[in-house]
Amino acid sequence: MDNRNLISCIVFLGLSAFVAVSSIGLGIGHLTNPRAGFMPFWTSLLVIVFSLILFGQTFANRSDQTRRVDIWSHVQWQKSLLAACALCVYVFILPVIGYLPSTSLLMLALFKLSSMKILPAALASLLAVILSYGLFSYILNTPLPRGTLGF
Amino acid sequence: MDALNGLFYGLSVAFELHNLLLLLAGCLLGTLVGVLPGLGPVGAISILLPLTFQLPPAGAIIMLAGIYNGAMYGGSTTSILINVPGEAASAVTCLDGYAMARHGQAGQALGIAVFGSFIAGTVGLIGLQLIGGPLSVLALKFGPPEYFAIILMGFTFIVYLAQGSMIKAVLMALAGIILSLIGLDPITSEQRFTFGNIHLFEGINVVPLAIGLFGLAEVFVNLEKTAPARVLQVRIRNMFPSKSQWLQAKWAIARGTVIGFFMGILPGGGPVLSTFMAYGVEKRVSKHPEKFGHGAIEGVAAPESANNAAASTSFIPLMTLGIPPNVVLAVLFGAFMIHGVTPGPLLMTQHPEIFWGVIASMYMGNVILLVLNLPLIPLWVQVLRIPDKILYPLIVLFCLLGAYSINNSVFDITVMILFGVLGYLLNKFDFEAAPLILGFVLGPMFEVNLRRSLLMSQGSFAIFVERPIALVALIVCVILIIIPLIQTIRKRNFCWFSHVD
What is this structure's pTM? Predict the structure, then answer.
């Protein structure tokens, strides 16, 4: 049985149940006067229906040994997780310390995650940040975030 | 003034040296800015609009039209090279364009996109010139029931868009619709799923969503690969489509052009919807539909042609009725007003030099963009020679800046990252992102037109069968759904009977 589909079904069922309940709170209205909850309610019901169909399909194929897929082995998922974490931290520090320092740190982290050595990574990140700053700030007049230090 | 005389008059305006130089500058700048993901045509026109303030009206509008066309050409480049759509209409090009690039056929993909865009753009302009007026009158007959039926028809193309499980594709489309409902209700302005976050009042912007789902997710997927990254070897002599590829793509370009031509005049997601429909049609008529999503050249030719044809015909409601059919042309409408020109039914008589000058300059702009973009293909393809360990962090930087520059908001970067993680998980769990984008883009129009139709008919669904255009679209929907079902049942019966024999 493909466990991925089972997990997906559970997630879809949970989220659609939340949307359906929230939609009732918004007010569904009726056909002559649909209200704000009309569309999300009926759409979430459809999601529930199709999730159950997917569940049924997966359960019907539960004896199919070839469908088992281990999505986490033979891959370095930790790198992707670290990259996502680095981006999350970046979003927090960007408005605080500004574009130049925060993006330099982010690029350094990403180059290191890509297995680059420290010195070339540092040089590449500085170059990328300076060029991008010049292009967007001065040529395209995009006001990039300035931190508390003013740059 | 008849169409031919008008065109000659327009050419005389467009061929004035200063207007020609402005057109060239507009095409070049539009292409360069349009390549940057997130900026796209809207960003390109908005950023470069101040450059036109000191110019005479005709020259300013000609330059802006060049920027618009250039940005439309440039949007497909990042879709093909690095799987980052420049705008929503380029998202479909990612499906096969990026696959072609990974197979060492980036040049061919870029080449067919450029040629297809040129052919479709030129045909669209001929249509704009010859039948713009009658088409705009037809567009006025489209009310909420007709729009609802057309958009429902667009949704049925999910059947053909899906490469794997149909159920999963439908689930993704429905999820896209639910995501599109976040924000203020379009009719009652009630908050829906905003959780009090002021940034969500206007909903989620499609550009950071698309950049995250396609571009950032691709970076995450590639980062975790354990095989050592190898530099793509590209032979220079294979930069352009071969004769056999041309033969494969020619009908895709033709069909994409026709679809984009008619969809472009519809307000709202005309160009976006046309790309999905063109892709779906090509997959439907192809003798090898299994190749779609894995580098089928028709999968690049059709949506790019549809996109550019729609971009040309979307000028019809703007120029003839003064109604901008999409966000890009709304910005252009503002530019017209800034320069003292009011688009609409009187434009042709009050400012014939602008009306015909813009049309003629768009013809010339198409030629300029073809000449400009073809030599750039070998240059763009060199991007793929960059080692992955350098390329992917740069793609992330590209994505960040693209997402930020839409509204100069860090929130858009947050959205992009969230959808990047979601796209990575969707890849892991074998779900496709394209149906989600389709649902997200069409969801708001689908809801608004459904609710308006029900208000008009006081709750009766009969309104959708009483109006001829809506009825025809619904019949097409039913046919599009039934045909694959019948084919599936036939295949199962054939397999069963073969087994029995």
Answer: 0.82
